[in-house]
Amino acid sequence: MPCCIGIIRYAWCRHRTLFKLGCTDKCEGLCPLAKQEVMLYTRFRWQCEDCHGRRHGADAELRMEHWSDQAERIIAEDGKQACRYRLLNLRDQEEFIEQMLEQQRLKQVEEIQQAEQWTSDYGQTAFMLRYGVQERPAPSAQQSRRSDQEQEAQHIAAENEKVLSPGPSDNDDDSLDGKTEAQISADELRRNIQVLRSQQQPDLLVLRDTLRSNRELREQQESGRRLARLTQDGSRRRRGGGGGSGSGNNESGAMDSLIGNPLGDARA
Questions:
Q1: Rounded Cα distance, 192 and 194, in Å
Q2: Does an H or E element contain 225, and which?
Q3: Residue 167, SS3?
Q4: pTM recorded for the entire structure
Q5: Neighbour-count burial of 237, counting CB atoms closer than 10 A to its CB (0-12 exposed, 13-18 middle, 19+ buried)
Q6: Of the four listed, 75, 165, 191, 234, which is most buried by Cβ atoms within 10 Å?
Q7: Residues 54, 59, 62, 67: is their CA dihedral positive or negative?
């Protein structure tokens, strides 16, 4: 019986993150490699969060050096007494650009976390659909009538219990939660799968999915590429034909021009 895992690979830094989706033997960690099954393998277009943070820190240091060089140049040109207003203007420009870059950084981190969360959520739902829920045959008409009568009797008993009892305890809440999880049907899980597929990011590709064939995945990947191209073309038109991919994980050329492009080749 397999121990099921999901993997997300980051294209830029080539790092990977592994998610344990579930184990039919209910192991605490991970079963031996021979018992593991990769149910889901995704690829995110950009970097992992750690590499993104290190790159942002290095870029911030370069920008700080650039601002210091600019301030020293102004002082050398105007003298300490006459440069006050130019330095204030430089500081305002620095604060504005740093604020814009911080907003961009937070958006990029959110995209990374969303890709990881999607991989985890989809993989766990796929595991429950494949191993956690058993298909049940449709009940006969006689069984349906009996089930309706039993549910009505249970409903009446529950209403009477509400009147007699002062209120639910913590243990009651736990038992109710357990019943709810146990009663999740395969149809509900399939609906959740469809919802998750509709929420998939354009920059996140599914390379392996045990619920879909290779042909289905290729069609989905081609559809994602077409959507990404349309998004890029729309971004270029809005910018008046400028280059770049339009994604939140690319540095803005306009932002670099404002500060004299102090990053140089550090973005590569």
A1: 5
A2: helix 214-238
A3: coil
A4: 0.66
A5: exposed
A6: 75
A7: negative
pLDDT digits (tens, 9 = 90+) for 124-160: 999 999 987 544 444 444 444 444 555 555 555 555 4
Angle 207-35-208 from CA coordinates, rounded to 5°? 5
The C-alpha atoms of residue 68 and residue 74 are separated, in whole angstroms, by 10
Is residue 208 within 8 A of residue 193, CB to CB? The reply is no
Instruction: Using alpha carbons, select from 7, 18, 21, 205 the residue that is nearest to residue 130.
Output: 21
Maximum distance among all Cα pairs of the chain, rounded to whole angstroms: 97
pLDDT for 234-246, tens place per residue?
766 765 644 433 4
Whether 190 contacts 129, CB under 8 Å: yes
- Round to whole Å and give the CA distance between 217 and 212: 7
Query: Strands 3-10, 36-44: parallel, antiparallel or unpaired by DSSP?
Result: parallel
Q: Give DSSP secondary structure letters for 38-82.
A: EEEEEEESS--HHHHHHHHHHHHHHHHHHHHHHHHHHHHHHHHHH
Is the CB of residue 30 less than 8 Å from the CB of residue 21?
Answer: no
Is 8 within 8 Å of 42 (Cβ atoms)?
yes
Domain ranges of the chain: 3-133+182-267
Instruction: Determine the Cα–Cα distance for residues 222 and 238; give it in Å rounded to an integer.
Output: 24
Instruction: Judge whether 66 and 131 are in contact, CB under 8 Å.
Output: no
CA 91 to chain centroid, in Å, comes to: 35
